[in-house]
Amino acid sequence: MGSIFRMNIVVQDLFHFIKELPTSVPIYAAHLNGENLYETKITVPCVLVVGNESQGMSNELTAKVTQKLKIPMVGEAESFNVSIATAIILGEFSRQLR
Q: Is 78 helix (H, G, I), strand (E, B) or coil?
C-alpha cells in the first residue's frame, strides 16, 4: 500500500518527455509486431509505452520507440487488455532486474 508515493511519476506531454531523454535510455513499447518479451534483455533506466487497446499507438509515437516487445500468446487470443499487458511486461522487467 502507498507504493505510488515511492515512485517517480512524470506528468507532462509524452512527446516532450521522450524528446528530452538521453539517447542512451531505451524506449520499449508493447506492440503486436514486437520481439518476444521473454527473450529480450531489459536495461534501465528505460521507458515503457503502452497504447490504446483498440488502436494501439500512433505512428508518430511508434517511430520514437527503440524496441517493440510482444507477449507470446497461447491459443486463439490475439491480445491482452492494456492493463493486463502492462502488468505482465512490468512483471518481466522486475524479474530481470532483481
A: coil
pLDDT band at 41 (very low <50, low <70, confident <90, very high): very high
The answer to whether 49 touches 61, Cβ cutoff 8 Å, is yes
pTM for the predicted model, two decimal places: 0.83
Of the pLDDT bands very low, low, confident and very high (cuts 50, 70, 90), residue 28 is very high
List, in sequence order, the alpha helices (H) in 1-98: 14-20, 59-62, 82-97
Given CA atoms 96, 17, 84, 39 in this order, what sign does their dihedral have? negative
Parse the chain into domains and list their residue ranges. 3-97
By the 8 A CB rule, do 25 and 76 touch?
no
- Options 3.40.50.150, 3.90.79.10, 3.40.1280.10, 3.40.50.11540; CATH of 3-97: 3.40.1280.10
Q: What are phi and psi of 48, to 5 degrees?
A: -115, 125
